[in-house]
Specification:
This protein is an alpha+beta fold. The chain folds into two domains: 3-119, no CATH class; 155-262, no CATH class. It is built from ten helices and five strands. The protein has helices at residues 62-72, 88-99, 118-128, 130-135, 137-142, 162-165, 179-189, 204-217, 229-241, 258-262, and strands at 3-9, 26-32, 37-41, 49-53, 104-107. It has a three-stranded antiparallel β-sheet. It has a two-stranded antiparallel sheet with strand order 3-4. 11% of the residues are buried.
Length: 263
Amino acid sequence: MVPTSGLRTVSPAQFQNCEHAPDSVAVGNNLRIASETGSERSNSAGPPFELWPVDEEIVINPALAVKLSDDFKIELPSIPDDWEAVPVQNFLDRFRSQITKYEWEVSEECWLGLFSFHKLVIYHDLKSHGTALEAHSIVRCLCDEEKPYSVSVSEPADPRELDKRILPDTSFLVADADSSQLVCIETVKAGNSLVIQGPPGTGKSQTITNLVSEFIARGKSVLFVSEKMAALEVVFQRLQNAGLGHFCLQLHSHRANKRDVIR
């Protein structure tokens, strides 16, 4: 990514709510050429690399846009559809007109770096659905605003009674499961929410795989999320090995396709 200009604060005290506020801060870059740049090592005696922009849209730094909007009620100018019709300088001048009272300046510099804003999507999602989240019983329990057992729950099954309660023709497990895992699976199938804790190698991914297969058999959809891509890959591979890979739609992967997700 190559940001082409930056916002610099002359009075850093105005950003005192930030986690770090040094004497002079570069708050962020309000423009970047593309999300990636190509690089090629040259065999010549000159510079070892050549850089060029890829064919992607110019985007505003979303983190800076949120900061300015939430704390200073400043809305960055919208990106024009055609940059040839609207020069970058005009865009920057419109932004400068909004920040003069703060004694800030827009410096026209070029910086090369890696900038990731993936978690900002979660921020926007939480902000857009805050009312629904506040009313959700599980969220309220996690925030200690509601007693955990004020929600209707059923008692977990007794492991010694599992063989009597679970008939083979009603079980759709695709991975091995011991009695403790079966209790978790049956508890979720009964409509309860729970937290499963355990060190690596204790069968958590097997339990998730079996839960997904159980709900696939019942014609239901399952959204499986994880902070680590490796966890998603393990469960996906187990489902593929069980012949259920065609039921899976990868939303977060280098193989994910936005067009397929929307369709």
